[in-house]
Design goal:
- Two copies of one chain form a homodimer.
- Chain A is mostly helical and about 350 residues long.
- Chain A has a single domain, classed as Orthogonal Bundle (Farnesyl Diphosphate Synthase), CATH 1.10.600.10.
- Helices cover about 70% and strands about 0% of the residues of chain A.
- A two-stranded antiparallel sheet of chain A has the order 1-2.
- The radius of gyration of chain A is 21 Å and the shape is globular.
- The first copy, chain A, starts with a helix and ends with a helix.
């Protein structure tokens, strides 16, 4: 047992602590606080958990992509520029948290976590293009096409998207191949016509039509696909890799779709309330583009309530997992309380 | 045996004929030609083979992509517009021919054949964009962005690329999951930094530099990646699905890289010698763009010789397969003798 514990990564040890953290804290007063600390592990600390997963993700991303010859230097530099440009790494975190909830290993989920961030980065590079949102800044830095040109940016996005699938297929170890195939299918679905590309096309078509033309049902469809689909893939792939049952994967999908919508509601609120400096990208873009948003349809106060309701529903979908769901529950809270 | 024969597809029956076609035709004169025909099956007919595979491919492509709700109608229409716009379907044919050479089933290879064409279509849509080659016509029809706008064209390409992987992962039946994972890895590699996107970036960077700056080594690198990488994936995936050994897959890769280069040499020759009408796309583009091509580096006559040498080397890599390699050998000939 000790040998096995020594082989675990720090994050796995933390997960182990989480599963034993369900014991209630002693209520009697104690003169020796240090004894309490050793008897009951500390409550779940989201900030520590997120920082740990962020560090793990950054290292895995950095290792995932190197130029193998002089001819690929430009495209790999362009891919790495956007892939390594910071970001919250929410999708990898969701994948790790889901896999840990079912006792899966972080190592087995790491290639999928990397792939999720490659896909997300591709969507950002292509969204920022002059032919799309025409954004010059992202995360406070010049966007990919500003530095490398539209042509290279388009191709770097394509390469990131295909490398995501290649990486999962080649690097996932210690998991039955059937699960890897399911993960690749889920990742593929999350980008296609009923994924982020389909959501984006509807979003573009509705732009400038004003709140009258776009009702709540359409807005929900757009964001369920544009934003929530990839979060759904993140959580369900983590669960699949750990061997979750179909029923359990479905619970994860409910959670993910709810936080996906909450994520977008929060984004819409931030677009109105935060500054460009805080966001690291141009604020107030939705207003300029006459885009239908949750604040426009519901007002700011009701939008905040809706975001909270969605997070509550997300957590309810995972109620049966108890403290093992603490990281996913914490990430749900984070998604609507973040400042960028 | 008869029951099993009845269950085979026509193309499988043809393949069966091919494996028995090695017997030499009788040399003596015969008064009853019909008897000769029944004694020795007809020699391999490339045109029939290609038409049969083209029909199979078109049907599979048509079935692969439907809009499931009103919100996805535009993106699916845009994806289907380019996917179903004709084309030679060389990549699916190569995949089918390779899988048949190793006794694999056409049915098991069909999702991969579809994926290859989805990937190829994505690369055409993105290449034609104003930010890239800025082409208004493809196969004699308006290009995707001319009809749907640059933004939808970019997203339709992204969706086709991800759907390719999804389709293989979800629809491949009767093959061990390990092989499906290997196929998905090979498809991913063929698009990334050492695949068509990497080849394209190098091609863009060399454009306008003239023949002095781009030598034969660089030109070969560009086309090995821009063109040959996806052909290599087509042949090797067909082989992998049929259970070919690593050594056999390597022989297929040698064949594919040789015909991939031959394909590009032939393309360069056609760009000089064929009319826009024959090509279905703008002719003489390479000259206008001051692009380094095989004819520019070697002259037209030597380019034709090089194309033939490459095809001979491709066939030599498959010499040990005898008549079972007839379709792949025939496709190699076709690649340098086509008129568009």
């Amino acid at each position: 047992m000790i040998n096995r514990l020594l082989m675990l990564l720090p994050a796995q040890l933390l997960a182990l602590e989480l599963t034993t953290a369900s014991r209630p804290l002693p209520t009697r007063t104690c003169r020796h606080p240090c004894m309490v600390a050793s008897a009951a592990p500390p409550a779940f600390d989201l900030a520590t958990y997120m920082e740990e997963k962020r560090v793990l993700t950054e290292a895995a991303l950095d290792a995932s992509l190197k130029s193998s010859c002089k001819e690929t230097e430009i495209i790999v530099e362009s891919m790495r520029y956007s892939l390594m440009a910071g970001g919250k790494r929410v999708r990898p975190m969701l994948c790790f948290a889901a896999t840990e909830m079912f006792g899966g290993s972080l190592e087995a989920a790491t290639p999928t976590a990397v792939a999720l961030e490659m896909i997300h980065t591709m969507s950002l590079i292509h969204d920022d293009l002059p032919a799309m949102d025409n954004d010059d800044f992202r995360r406070g830095k010049p966007t990919n096409h500003v530095l490398y040109g539209d042509d290279v940016a388009i191709l770097a996005g394509d390469a990131l998207l295909s490398t995501a699938f290649e990486h999962v297929a080649k690097e996932t170890k210690g998991v039955p191949a059937e699960r890897v195939v399911r993960v690749l299918a889920a990742l593929g679905t999350s980008v296609g016509a009923v994924g982020l590309a389909g959501g984006q096309v509807m979003d573009l078509k509705c732009e400038g039509q004003g709140a009258d033309a776009v009702d709540m049902e359409t807005l929900t469809w757009i964001h369920t696909h544009k934003t929530a689909a990839l979060l759904k893939a993140a959580v369900s792939c983590g669960a699949i890799l750990a061997g979750a049952t179909d029923e359990q994967v479905k619970q994860c999908e409910v959670y993910a779709l709810k936080i996906g919508l909450a994520f977008q509601v929060a984004d819409d609120i931030l677009d109105v309330t935060a500054s460009t400096e805080e966001l690291g990208k141009t604020a107030g873009k939705d207003l300029d583009a006459d885009k239908t948003t949750y604040p426009k349809l519901l007002g700011l106060d009701r939008s905040r309530e809706v975001a909270q309701e969605l997070v509550d529903e997300a957590k309810a979908a995972l109620a049966s997992y108890g403290d093992a769901a603490a990281p996913l529950n914490g990430l749900a809270d984070y998604i609507i309380n973040r400042s960028n």
